[in-house]
Amino acid sequence: MFKRIQSDIQCILDRDPAARTRWDVITSYPGFHAVVLHRFAHACWGMGLKWLARWVSNISRFLTGIEIHPAAVVGERVFFDHAMGVVVGETAEIGDGCTIYQGVTLGGTSLYKGAKRHPTLGKNVVVSAGAKVLGGFVVGDNAKIGSNAVVIKPVPAGATAVGIPARIIPSKDDTSADVTTQDPKFNAYGITNEDDPVSQALRGLVDGAASQDHQITLLWKAIEQLSAQNKADNCVPSDAHRQDCFEAEKLNELIGK
Fold first, then answer.
1. Domain count, the chain
2. Residue closest to 101 by CA, chosen among 123, 133, 126
3. Which residue, among 173, 150, 145, 163, has the nearest Cα to 199 in the 3D structure?
4. Residues 75-121: pLDDT tens digits?
5. Full residue range of the structural domain in which residue 214 is found
6. 152, CA 20 to 30 Å: which among 3, 6, 212, 257?
């Protein structure tokens, strides 16, 4: 039990630069308080003390602003960062090493009692502020949910989900979407350099247009060379496109590259 509490404290020190000491975490972090109280409520629920479990859960919500149903499964080293307004449903499962920010809902879309109505988060998942994960599906290991995203379908391991409804950005080599080394790097709020599928699509269109513009320029130069050889310069239009004028780099900067 004490080793588990120590790991809960250490994960906060590792992921929050504002956390200075263990005593600071123990006395000042509602996310830590919510996890400790939930473990007690979950134990009561498992022993059949349903009313006591709900009462402890309600007290925890009053003290921390984080509502976790006592039947929900919360793994080790789970960090509720700020986390005011977080709601975790009855059949939700949160894997080891997950980070959940304020305003997150792990909710359900079904009214059938006893059914798997709430999502299952794999290991090291980051759910950013205001995100809603709704349904009894799985969010894979190392996945990231962007701020205010509404996720209503499974998210593969290592992928990033952003938007309403959420669009999925596939992972690189089945790992975290921003991995550049063997050790995954933790990104606060799930922010990566390639977390917007709309901007990625726009960049692809800009690069394609720039390539076509360059090919047209090469074609006009070839036509001019052939015309000069045949002494038929008058067949070349006066507005021939002889130089690249498509400002791809400038457009990419506007998109946010």
1. 2
2. 126
3. 163
4. 888 999 888 999 999 899 999 989 999 899 998 887 777 778 899 99
5. 199-255
6. 257
Residues 133, 222 within the same domain: no
Distance CA 257, CA 250 (A): 10
From residue 133, give the alpha-carbon distance in Å to each of 65, 71, 92, 221: 19, 18, 10, 55
Judgement on whether residues 188 and 203 belong to the same structural domain of the protein: no
- Both 176 and 246 in a single domain? no
Q: Name residues whose C-beta falls within 8 Å of residue 117's C-beta, 6 or more positions apart in sequence.
A: 89, 90, 91, 108, 109, 110, 135, 136
Share above pLDDT 70 across residues of the chain, in percent, rounded to a whole number = 76
Does one domain contain both 26 and 96? yes
pLDDT at 128 over 70: yes
Residue 159 CB partners (closer than 8 Å, separation 6+): 140, 143, 144, 168, 169, 170, 171, 177
Structure-derived torsion over alpha carbons of residues 157, 161, 167, 170, reported in degrees to the nearest 10: -40
C-alpha 142/C-alpha 157 separation (Å) is 6
Neighbours of 158 (CB within 10 A): 24
Range among 60-74, 112-126, 199-213, 241-255 with highest mean pLDDT value: 60-74
Please count the other Cβ atoms lying within 10 Å of the Cβ belonging to residue 7: 14
Domain final residue pick, 193, 209, 238: 193
Which of 152, 167, 193 is the C-terminal boundary of a domain? 193
- Whether residue 243 is found in the same domain as residue 140: no
Burial of 217 (0-12, 13-18, 19+ CB in 10 A): middle
Provide the CATH number for the domain around residue 38: 2.160.10.10
pLDDT of residue 196: 60
Instruction: State the pLDDT at residue 111.
Output: 74
